Amino acid sequence: xxxxxxxxxxxxxxxxxxxIQNHQQxxxxxxxxxxxxxxxxxxxxFEFKTKVLENLExxxxxxxxxxxxxxxxxxxxxxxxxxxxxxxxxxxxxxxxQVCIDCGAHAGLISDIxxxxxxxxxxxEPNRYLNFFLKKKYQANTKIQLFNKAVGHKNFYTQFLxxxxxxxxxxxxxxxxxxxxxxxxxxxxxxxxxxxxIETLLEKNESIYFLKLDIxxxxxxxxxxxxxxxxxxxxxxxxxxxxxxxxxxSEKKLAKISNLIKKHKTxxxxxxxx
Length: 274
Prior knowledge:
Distance between the termini: 21 Å
Low-confidence stretches: none
Largest sheet: 6 strands, parallel
Number of helices: 9
C-alpha cells in the first residue's frame, strides 16, 4: 500500500468509527472499508506476481546468456543497483581495462559486476570473515586486487565495530555513531587514506572509471577531502551510499557534501546510490 491508499483507508475507518459511536445503521462505511482493503490486497497480489515474472525472466536470460548481458542484468538486480545507473556498467562493455575501486565490497556483488564488464578492480573490505570468502572467490582471477583494509580520509588503525553481534552484517563499521549501543569492538583493522591511494594510481597513469563507496558513515570526511583535492575530476563516476541517519547532525553532514558538489559544479558524484 502506498501513502495515498493508507490515507484513503484511514478516512474510511474514521467514518466507520463515527458510525459505530453514533449507533448508526448505514452499511455504506463498512462496504467502503471492505472495498479499499480488497483493492489494496488485489494490488499487492498483482505487484507480487509481476515481480516474480520479472525475476523469472532475468533468471532465464542469465541461464541462457551466462557470459553476457543476460547475466549482467541479473547481477545488477541482485546487487540492488538503481536502474537509472545501469548505463554506467553498460558503457564499460567493450571499453578495455577500466580501473574501478570497490570500497566496502562486502560479499563482492559490485566487484563481480565490474569484473563481468571487463574492469580491473581494487577491492577493499575490512571484515576478515568476508575476506575469507573473497580470497577463495577470486584466487584465480588476475583482474582483481583485494585489500583486507578499510578506507577513510587518513591512515590509521582502529577497532572494527560489529553491529548487533552479527559478524557478517553490512552495518559493521569503523566510526562511532548513534548505533553504538548496538555495536561492540571486534578486532583491529587498518584504515588507509583513499585519496593517497587514488593519487598513487594517477601517478601510474591509471585513469579511474568508477568508484563505489559504501563505508558505513566514514564517507563524509572522505568525500569532503576527495572533492576539495579535486580528485573527483580524475574519476568518471563516483557512487556513494550515505549513512547520515547514523549521526545526530545528519542533515548537516549530508548538506555539507551536497553543497560542495554544487560549489564545484560536478555531475559525476551520486549520493543516492541506494
